[in-house]
Amino acid sequence: MDETDTETDSLTGCRYHPTFLSSTESLRSRASSLNYEFESGNQTCKSTKKVSKATFSIRRSSPPRQADYYWGQHYADVMRAEPMPPFLLDVRSDIMKLLNVPDFSPITVEPPAISYGKVGDSVPSLNSCIVNLYNGDDSVVTPHHDGQAGSTPGAQKAVVAGTSIYSLTACDEGAERKIQLYAPQPGSTKPGKVVYEKELANGSLFELPAAANGAYKHGIPKAPKGVVGARYAFIFRTVVEVEMSVLEERKREGDRKLAEKAGKRGGEGESGGGKRPRKGKKRGPTSLRQDKQMNVD
Ligand SMILES: O=C(O)CCC(=O)C(=O)O
């Protein structure tokens, strides 16, 4: 990384390191063989459209697939993270070394009640990585905040307040995408005008400070028509994990309620399978609806 070309945005505090990696070839080839559990069009993550996702955690627990990812919707699938593979652990330590990220980050604001952690505890920094695969001009991430303890009511999986979110781009030539930050619109869930925009180059690292995540929604808009090729975003975050069994129970409960509703409407009785709600339908209890209003992922 050449530190002299790092750019800091004076309004939002976002930092952009255009030359974090000189080559992304091996990263792209490893990323292409990851297991993308959430495929394009899956509606469980409400901000991403036609983006595939794989999630990883550094938590080394037994059984190994214990860590989780959850988007806070009542009826969403609960997604478990895999242990971070060695190549992602290497990227993580490069980021930490080059940007002086401490090994541990303190939890400074109250995380959700079902979290593995409380104020005063520390968690390993950048303990979570999501790999987003964009494959076409209509892969988008709509404006959202990442759920952040203290600034996001109802966030089920909290990003530790005070730590930045890092997105490393590895993409084919011509498949670069823009990130945008949007002005807040008091009293409205709609994003305001774009206050920051950056095309994220192959090999670049984008840093979204916690304060900017709290103050501005961010998103990846559509690419110009006809853009082809893959873009991988490796998004490292410091998170407080939540109790998996509670989430799974919530999902079962949500599925049961849906099945009951479907039974009442269609006279089919309890199906047990749990139909997915159609987009735009009201769903979930109040605390989780707050997530929806905030558009939190
Ligand atoms: O693709 C990126 O660089 C960022 C994506 C993002 O904001 C998200 O998935 O929440």
TrEMBL record:
This chain belongs to which protein, by name? Answer: Fe2OG dioxygenase domain-containing protein
Q: Give a Pfam family name.
A: 2OG-FeII_Oxy_2
**Region listing for Disordered, in residue ranges:** 249-297
Give the species.
Triparma columacea
Q: Where is the composition biased (Basic residues)?
A: 275-284
Q: Where is the composition biased (Basic and acidic residues)?
A: 249-268
Which ranges carry the Fe2OG dioxygenase domain?
A: 125-240
Tell me the Gene3D superfamilies matching this sequence.
Answer: Alpha-ketoglutarate-dependent dioxygenase AlkB-like
